[in-house]
Amino acid sequence: MNPEINMSVSPIFRKDGAKSIYLIFTDGEKSAEILLPDPGSEVKALSNKGFSEDEIKSLIEYVNNDRDNITGVAGKVTPLKAFLGQEQGK
């Protein structure tokens, strides 16, 4: 993944018993939202503004390969800390 790309990770959400994590990738004016669902379900791009198709495929591949780490970070994210601008995921 390009080191210039920033990734924001949501807390883990539950809907109908399934867990999901939303990821926002930004690179300057480009942005993409990617959904990381429970294992066994397909990672998919929900929105894309400016990334090429190959870049989106690379982001999805990155999310698939780093699933465990991303899930660990998302498990430590708290909305109140985010609202207060405090560091998350550590």
Key phrases:
90 residues, 5 strands, five-stranded antiparallel beta sheet, alpha+beta
* Total of helices: 3
The major beta sheet can be summarized as: 5 strands, antiparallel
| Series of H and E elements | EEEEEHHH
Rg value: 13 Å
How many β-strand runs?
A: 5
Helicity range: 25-40%
The figure for the number of domains is 1
- The global form is globular
**Which segments are poorly predicted (pLDDT under 50) over 5 or more consecutive residues?**
none
Termini separation comes to 21 Å
Structural class: alpha+beta
Please explain how this structure is put together:
The protein is α+β, with helices and mostly antiparallel strands. It has one domain (6-83). 29% of the residues lie in helices and 34% in strands. The chain contains three helices and five strands; from the N terminus they run βββββααα. It has helices spanning 53-65, 67-74, 79-83; strands at residues 6-9, 13-15, 18-27, 30-37, 44-49. Strands 1, 2, 3, 4 and 5 form a five-stranded antiparallel β-sheet that branches. Strand 4 and strand 5 (44-49) form a beta hairpin. It is globular.
Present the secondary structure layout:
Blueprint: E1 6-9, E2 13-15, E3 18-27, E4 30-37, E5 44-49, H1 53-65, H2 67-74, H3 79-83
Antiparallel strand pairs: 1-3, 2-3, 3-4, 4-5
